[in-house]
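Record type: ASSEMBLY
Status: queued
Input:
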Amino acid sequence: MPPATSPRTDVTHVARSDTGDPLWRKVIEPSNLANWAAPIALVVLAIVFQALNPTFLSLGNVESMLSAASILIVLAVGQTFVVATAGIDLSIASAMTFAAVIFGAVFQFGLIAAILAAIAAGLAVGLVNGLLIARGRITDFIVTLGTLSAASGMALIVADGKPKTIISAPLLKLSTGTVWIFGYAFLLAVVLALVAHVVLFHTRFGTYVLATGGNTEAASATGVSTARIKTAVYVISGLTAGLAAVLLVARVGAAEPASNTSFLLNSVAAVVLGGVSLFGGKATIVGPVIGALLLTALVNGLTLLGVSQFYQPLSVGIVVVLAAFLTRFQK
Amino acid sequence: MTQTHRMPLAEDVPDDALLKIDGATLSFGQVRALKDVTIHARRGEVTAIVGDNGAGKSTLIRCVSGVHTPDAGTIAFEGQTVNFRSPHDARAAGIETVHQNLALVEDLTVWQNLFLNREIVRGFGPIAFLNRRAMRVKAEEMVSTLAVNVPAVGSRVRRLSGGQRQAVSICRAAGFASKLIIMDEPTAALGVQETARVEELIMRLRSEGHAIILISHNFAQVLKLSDAVWVMRAGRCVAGRRTSETDGDEIVGLITGARPDDVPSAATS
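Status: finished
Output:
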């Protein structure tokens, strides 16, 4: 490797990669591989599982995979905004649990009230996170670790440790109704992802999120209120936790104060698999969505093959570390 | 100042001075970063601020660009006393800054950086969407009118060389009808050729009527580019000269304290 490239070769390099080169060459370039890790792995996984068990790609199984992925997609979208500012929200799954319990507590006043209450609960956790991190200047890791514990504790207190069965026809429809192979829950998650994509890439706010994550100093020097942006991304993450809580209650049929640690790990994993930089400033929405689908397909495929579910966290862990390894080659 | 009849520059303020800083004082805890600094900048001129490391040059210009607010003293811009609470206020007043650390976001494209916090949007009621195409087109224009060698406005800043980045920074400051451009060590990190290009760019901006405040360690550059020079030492502005009436030796003497100050230090403390 030559020690340094002169500006001139730099320019030609930019020109070349901007115009020429077929797509496949861009994909296998090591620096781009991380961005393509999730789609490639998803295809490979589909081929392997399909070969081992032909029901894997049957319409019925695809439908159930997409439905199963919807909660994780919603959480991953929220987590993406936080990670794009170089932060992390460890409390996202606990906020979802707390919001689900609040849903259960308010359900006697009607479904709409319960949904609004769940979303408000998620927003509240996000706002606390955001204010402590952006205004209180406490490390994101510590703050959200604290709210992780606090939110699950509050869930236990509110629910008195007991699950509450929720019987509601519209919620049943949400979790079982489909348009062809696309469940309503999945469609809801896709709509949310589309909105998130537009916000991230077609609004000023999205640009400021990426600028804050990429170079906080530079963003504030141009007059961007980085504290406000940092608060806002945790509020967004709380909002997605509230929405995910509604999907969770619909899917489980109960509001329970269970710890949902796997959702936390998988939301971060989906974001990393999606090629979003943990150092902030680089993010897509489609990447984490595919990451969420990949993780769901992995668990689904292993279940179809009859692999003990004890192996599932292990396999998720291996996939995530591999994805993180690929990001080392990112430029 | 006994032998010379000429007035100290600090008192020779034209009525239509673009920027007047009067008695600016700023402390960070126990450290007095600025002590009663009085300088001004004229319209259409390059005003240089020189001094050793830690003399307070960057702190002073950060007061003008809205990063810091002085504890005491006033800043007047275009004859109006201003009180900037954030960089946003300063930019709104027409003061653009090219920071020492460049203030570019590497993972965003050239056009996104040029339009950072100045985005062109299309509004539909309360919701506004970025007009990416308009910004790209305008960015092309901005880059080409300054004839800077930035490859494509769609490329990410991460891929640019130091000189290209500096050009993008200056381009951003020069655009948007700015009235005053502050440049903090614009060539400190650049090679010989890139420095020459940036200096050319500064001269072009002045010939177009932009007022510029230039902070530099490079005396040759200061003497070549500036119309007036202010010398800072240990948080104070110790002297001011018209560049045509001074030379490198005098400036060095003022910076190190080997020559007597315009204002005796006893008078200011």
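Annotation: Chain B has nine helices and twelve strands.
Annotation: Residues 104-177 of chain B form one domain.
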